[in-house]
Amino acid sequence: MAIATVNPATGETLKTFDALNPGEVEDRLVRAEQAYQEHRTTTFAYRRELLLAAADLLDADRETIARTMTTEMGKPLAQARAEAKKCAKTMRWYAHHAEKLLADEYPDPADVTDSGAARVVVRYRPIGTVLAVMPWNFPLWQVVRFAAPALMAGNTGLLKHASNVPQTALYIEELFRRAGYPEGCFQTLLIGSGAVEDILRDPRVAAATLTGSEPAGRSVASIAGDEVKKTVLELGGSDPYVVLPSADLEKAAATAVTARVQNNGQSCIAAKRFIVHADVYDAFAARFTERMAALSVGDPMDENTDVGPLASEQGRSDLEELVDDAVHQGAAALCGGRRPPDRHAGWFYEPTVLSGITPTMRIHHEEAFGPVATLYRVADIDEAVSVANDSPFGLSSNAWTRDPDEQDRLSRDLQAGGVYFNGMTASHPGFPFGGAKRSGYGRELSGHGIREFCNMTTVWYGPEE
Fold first, then answer.
1. What is the pLDDT of residues 327-385, one digit of tens each?
2. Which residues does the UniProt record annotate as the domain Aldehyde dehydrogenase (predicted)?
3. Catalytic residue chosen out of the listed positions 87, 185, 268, 454
4. Which of 58, 135, 390, 443 could in theory staple to 88 by disulfide, Cβ–Cβ 3.0 to 4.6 A?
């Protein structure tokens, strides 16, 4: 895939970039290692000031970088601004919390005495340069939620971003440079996917984090496993959205629309499978379908647009195949199910609601990465849990019920990295984020995320003479 900015609203190639050659990659690996040897010894106060400076710059750049993201991958401009704002917030969160999150820990005195020690301290130390392989759908957020904790922990970072968001990728490196980070602390590598293996195998790279497709995750995990290097993976998702009789149907239906079409439907944590109790199915389906059909599809730079284009022509084709397969096997398109007839350029697809889904349809098990929702009618909470868990993915989940017993049941039995009641899944720097099953492993954000790329070191002091 060429490294290029291609406007998905028009299909026009705006700018192309040359991939780094092996010598240029080597130069960046040298810089990363040199920077790490210095950065790992710096104080939290020093790192805090750098990250706060980056957050301030990002706030000042919000409109510019938002327009860059929208141009490169098509998200509505208002959502791009919100993404930049969230990134600055997360930078500040880690700047202010990292020292406490990585503070020395002291085991139980009884265990210290039992071990024969005078004292024992557990310390969190950085591990080195972390390679981040990141996707295009949240081109700033996905990077910052790795970079902010990694840099605050004393690590350095190398970014291999998706090839269709090169200008956003270069902006991130420049942002950290402008904030005062020394050369080599954070670098963007404009390379193709074929160059990742050699970099990951390089002894100067300590670990890797990847957000992306399941095949990409398998590849990175396999290489890292062969090299015995730590990885964190956040892969696909086909999140369930369970609606039970005690739900506020108006709120559930309104939130369902946002949960499905956020980022033009191209979000791993977007709700995709809407599993509704038979007692409220018809009422929910009517409300949800009406709202989906009323969404405005168009130019993502237009402030009135609800849903912009998919990020690539291939992405739209993949989505069309899933919808066409389902309809061919008997599913009904309650709305949408086609390209907008008034959009003759760009990679647009109408917000779509499908009902009558069966396990033989590809969309039942595969992730629909676009504004397509599937509806399921279930008889009770037992069937709701069964349908929700009948997926290879387990990233997050949503459930609408005001019954405490049902909430306990769902929080226990839904196979996912998160369960969000009476609201939609949304990441926050203070809460751990990650999935189960084929949605990956490890956690980002919160204290769990910053510790993923730390060496937990037990320091044992023998009895003094």
1. 999 999 999 999 999 988 999 999 999 999 999 999 999 999 999 999 999 999 999 99
2. 3-459
3. 268
4. 58
